[in-house]
Amino acid sequence: MSSVRRRLTSRLAAALLVSGLVAMGTAAGAGTAAADDETPQYQGGASATLDGLTTYDGAVLHTDGKDQPLSAGLFEMTVDGGGRLKTYCVDIHNPTQSEAKYQETPWDQTSLGANKNSGKIRWILQHSYPQVDDLSGLAKTAGTGPLTEKTAAAGTQVAIWRYSDGADVDATDPQAEKLADYLQRSARDAAEPKASLTLQPAAVSGKAGDLLGPVTVRTTDTDSVTVVPPADAAASGVRVTDKHGKPVTSAKDGSQLYFDVPDKAADGTAQLGVQATTSLPVGRAFAGVTKSQTQILAGSSDSTVSATATANWAKRGPIPALTATKNCARGGVDVTAVNEGDAAFTFQLAGQRHTVAAGETRTITVPVDEDQTYDFTVEGPGGLQETFKGLLDCAVSGAPVTTLDQPGSGPSPASAGEVPTDGVTAYSGGEGLAETGSSNATPVIAGIAIVLVLVGGGAVFFLRRKNSTGGK
To answer: What does pTM read for this prediction?
Structure first.
């Protein structure tokens, strides 16, 4: 068995082990909790599906005394709800999976968070193709000679890899190589762009009869953001309002939203959503829901972005609001419990018992190994259950390898051993993927992707609530 196959097999076993972790908790309290479908929950922004590497040329990776041909260039994604994205890879050591699902993600929840050169990568994106689409002007500035879309994309990707992965990589086209050298030499630090759309915090709690919040809208959209009320608003009487109790149907950056819960409402929960159409800021990271190369945004059409927030209420007892985020710096997942009730909230998480006093907030970091999935549940009063699932993918690591699954009309991966000397793999439709996966490991990679989907692996959090008897 090759070292690549051994590494992938061990990761699969570890993923299955961690995904079996279920931390159940108990707390006293009466009432009901609303039932949500088990749909992806994340911090907001765009969700997209990888289409493939569409504008690319050749490159050569120098590693372990060997030269490995690569395809280097721009990927494209289709945004859920409408829109198109162009991205570059910032994770040369990991494979890209066919038609992988991606979520807009903060830098600190990817390998970019610990990379001191992440700002230089954003500078490259801002000063090269496709943000600079005047190829004659770009060639003159960089002193390269004539550039095409393909060679400009390849040169840009090569420069990014040198900073994202510390890779010893060169473009095969001389003009693309000159562009890569210019971009690497000229790059300066640039700040991480803001999220396209988020709600902060993603969960609130309080007593029935109060305004629960605020939930603050954060967006780069300059136009109005649409506010979507709870699905059962008419039946429950729960409204989305401003701080004065006035109903709100639209918002903007900085707007504060509240859940107006009727005084006589039965203990329960509700969710509001916000949605906008905007061009996403260049430099936003995109992490795979399953294990797939992390991407960074190079260009965006007007695209659909969204975010959700949840409110939990009761008349008395513990009233928790629960959220979870990946913590790459500490190698785990932060589970935060805010208790707005008048009694302590006690629960178990990862085999440990925790108590949050009334009116207090506590964050527990659950350790998770790199490249492993996690799956744990916290129970609250009134039948509330919140399950957090995901994949911790915070680092670039491993030996770069050379064949990828091809996202196209069929599920079959690229044929092994068919990497041409120019580093570009051709297939039906003329698309290709950057060849950074092992040819003899491709079936294992595909198998891992399927298993991770089945066990709930992913780079986002899932929220599941169960009705108790007498639910809404």
So the answer is: 0.77
